[in-house]
Amino acid sequence: MTTKSRRWWWTAIATTVVLVAGCGSGEEGGGARAAVLTMEQVQQVVPDAASMDGWKEAGKPNAGEMDDLQRQWACPMKGSVGCEGSRYFSASAFEQEGTAAKVDYLVIAYDDEQLADAAYDVLWDGHYHKRVGQRAKAFDLGPLGDERNARWGRSGYVGVAPAAVTQARVGTTLLWVFASGDHQGDIDQDGVRDFTELLAERSRQAQNGDTPTAELGD
């Protein structure tokens, strides 16, 4: 799939109401209580313009209920497996000024931590790890969230455009980041790690009952 088609896929999620190096479970680094979030809280989890210095919004952050249409987008396997017990989603998208770098955020909130935990491997193994191609390689996100995975690959017609996808779980939420560029150097693994840490921290803050205030570079 090309960078353009991937971008369309993520944008579609945001507009219809309007992603360890093979590492698995662990409580280290997350710190979030397993709180069930409201739709307002879920919308606050995804970064906004104020939290993404040097980036401009490609679309306003949006949130909505996980209805049948949203489940088909977020969990596109037969029967929308992995979306059982999903309650709300939110998404936001950004472009970096002066480069071709793009980053998209997606959050799905579940009715409880057990449902989010059960959905984790289903969605990563069944769909999300494929977003950057079969030749993509796993890379390390560090002790982030309760579970985490990341893959780095290439996209575009000639396979030179860098792309990465990450998936993490923090309590009752599953979190995805998809980052891409048109040229080598537009994005790197450290930057993708920062995006994922930002999203995980904002989810942790929301589940602790605080307004998410984490910003890129904190």
Quick tags:
5 helices, 218 residues, single chain, alpha+beta
How far apart the termini lie comes to 33 Å
SSE series: HHEHEEHEEEEH
Mean pLDDT: 86
Q: Which term fits the overall shape? A: globular
Structural class: alpha+beta
Tally the helices. 5
Question: What level of helicity do the residues show?
Answer: 25-40%
Strand order of the largest sheet: 1-2-3-7-6-5-4
Annotate the secondary structure layout.
Layout: H1 3-15, H2 39-45, E1 55-65, H3 68-74, E2 86-96, E3 102-110, H4 113-126, E4 137-138, E5 147-155, E6 161-170, E7 173-180, H5 189-207
Antiparallel strand pairs: 1-2, 2-3, 3-7, 4-5, 5-6, 6-7
Molecular structure report:
By secondary structure, this protein is an alpha+beta fold. The chain has helices at 3-15, 39-45, 68-74, 113-126, 189-207, and strands at 55-65, 86-96, 102-110, 137-138, 147-155, 161-170, 173-180. α2 (39-45) runs antiparallel to α5. Mean pLDDT is 86; it is low at 1-32.
Task: Offer a concise description of the structure.
The chain is an alpha+beta fold and 218 residues long. The chain is 28% helix and 28% strand.
